Amino acid sequence: MNLEHYRIIIRPLITEKSTLQKETGNIIAFEVASKANKIEVRRAVEALFDVQVEEVRLFNVRGKLKRLGRNIGRRSDWRKAYVRLKAGQKAPEFFEGV
Questions:
Q1: CB neighbours of 23 closer than 8 A, spacing ≥ 6?
Q2: Are 30 and 80 in contact (CB under 8 A)?
């Protein structure tokens, strides 16, 4: 395992949509580094979770405009990855005990 893998995969996305995709389509969602490409994400997921990856899809998510009173701010942009595992591979359980 390389420390670079931890810089590429920032955190798993645990939402209703990602949980449903994990159960039905064997797809896991992650927040990844904004400069990461598909090959780097594939290698990081395979190394960190010991699974085989079939497909990686990347999306740039724009930060939302937020305001507090008359002050307007903007959240940062970030990158999302959907990783499809090969058939027969078990998706890692991130929060089993919760």
A1: none
A2: yes
Q: What is the DSSP letter of 92?
A: P
Start-to-end Cα distance in the chain: 27
1-50 pLDDT tens trace: 688 999 999 999 999 999 999 989 899 999 999 999 999 999 999 999 99
> Count of domains in the chain?
1
pTM assigned to the model: 0.86
Nearest alpha-carbon partner for 30 in 43, 18, 40: 18
Quote the domain boundaries for residue 48. Answer: 3-85
For 25, phi then psi, to 5°, come to: -110, 5
CATH for 60: 3.30.70.330
